[in-house]
Amino acid sequence: MDYLALAYIVLMAIASTYFIKAQIPTATIDRLLDLYKREILIQGADEAFIVNNVVAFSGGSPLRKYGSKFANFSEGRLIIEETETEFEIFVEAEHPKWIFLFDVYFIKLRDDLERELQSDL
């Protein structure tokens, strides 16, 4: 997948969430990017890589035995933006094949990652 090509593809906003910095003071953009990249690959993307504050990914087969939430998109990106008080997380994707309840999964994933970050304290 060519990351630069993503700039010319019209991506559809799929989901968003945020982390409150005060609740996880050891969190950094780099740590969040690594955690999300791991989860994107676990959930079926064929490839995922980090460029700046973005995890770019391309989908795999939604018929995977273990997880397929990110296999349902042909291409996409997860963007993390930092404010004074929060890390804001956005997912955009091209040609979603199946997005029903993805936002519910995405919020649960955020909660799981927050617990993981808090256990690092």
Structure description:
The chain is α+β, with helices and mostly antiparallel strands and about 120 residues long. It has one domain (about 5-120): Alpha-D-Glucose-1,6-Bisphosphate, Chain A, domain 4 (2-Layer Sandwich). Helices cover about 30% and strands about 30% of the residues. The chain is built from 3 helices and 5 strands. Strand 4 (about 75-80) and strand 5 form a beta hairpin. The chain is globular and about 35 Å long. The relative contact order is 0.24.
Name its key features:
3 helices; Alpha-D-Glucose-1,6-Bisphosphate, Chain A, domain 4; globular; five-stranded antiparallel beta sheet; single chain; disordered N terminus; alpha+beta; 121 residues
Short description:
The protein contains 3 helices and 5 strands; from the N terminus they run αβαββββα. The protein has 121 residues and is of the alpha+beta class. The protein has one domain: Alpha-D-Glucose-1,6-Bisphosphate, Chain A, domain 4.
Task: Break the fold down into its secondary structure elements and pairings.
Layout: H1 3-6, E1 12-20, H2 29-42, E2 47-51, E3 54-58, E4 75-82, E5 86-94, H3 102-119
